[in-house]
Amino acid sequence: MSKSRSSGVTQKPASRLFALRGRWGKAVALLVLAAAIIVLSLFSGSAEIGMRRVLAALLGSADDAARSIVLDLRVPRLIAAFAVGSLLALAGVLLQALFRNPLADPYVLGVSGGAAVGAVIALSLGAAQLLVQSSATAGAFLIMIIVYALGRGGGTTRLLLIGVALASTCGALVTVLLTSADATRVRGIVFWLAGDLGWVVNPVPTAFAAIVGTAAVVLLARPLNVLAAGELRARSVGLDFELWRLAVYVAAAVTTAIAVVSAGTVGFIGLVTPHAVRLLFRTSDHRIVAPASALLGGAVLAAADLCARTIASPRQLPVGAITALVGAPAFVLLLRARAK
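RE: above sequence
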């Protein structure tokens, strides 16, 4: 009897150590994947530049043409892809914890729809890029306020339903504006709606928001874990459910707004990435899910942007179209794997 007990005691730490090593190995694999995508993105593109010229441009000793292509085009676009993908993944993690719904994604609150309406109005009038982004920001925050005001006091389900309804309304408004827009401006509007990282002029603020957002979610992982367990569980441990619901809603809406304003509506990143991370690491602990989702979301969007730049070279495809084409079957496969 004592032998069996002693063996059980020794097996538990061993199994925990094995699980910990497995998670560290998967984290290293994610880092290697992200590094490989970074290298491919820097050395691949519509312009034929040799490896030596790319390295020289990164070191500051290349010719003007190589320096312009690498430092002014590829590097900012790569940073923007990782930042936007990370923000969308974080928004998906927050919303799935808030609504306890596996289908919750960054666009379910209607924030992206409000941003789209504002951007399409500005683009239809031929506004400059700064005014387009300002209009998209105003639309995103206006919808955020409306959704919370109408859903206040009705629980998370009511908040979700109002967000879906307003997202549908914004989609209808975008269709009306698109059909009435000047034909010469329709292409730019379609690219923005489908997701285009070419809109990002200065990716540093977006990257800073992604880093701060990831750190904040990791630091607040424990309350998020309790919130994801349900309202009854949250109240039983003394968590201020209403306050945390508001905080998570605002955080998810703000991260979505920053991502959409930066690159347009890029779908499936915020929906698929958290599921993939939970399945890979076999945990729902937000201390692991949040940073891993941010890293994987950035890597996936960077890979999609690389495909968008090179598949039909010298033409560029909307990056949102690539994520939708790959994201839909990937989501189905993840659901099947999770069921098994």
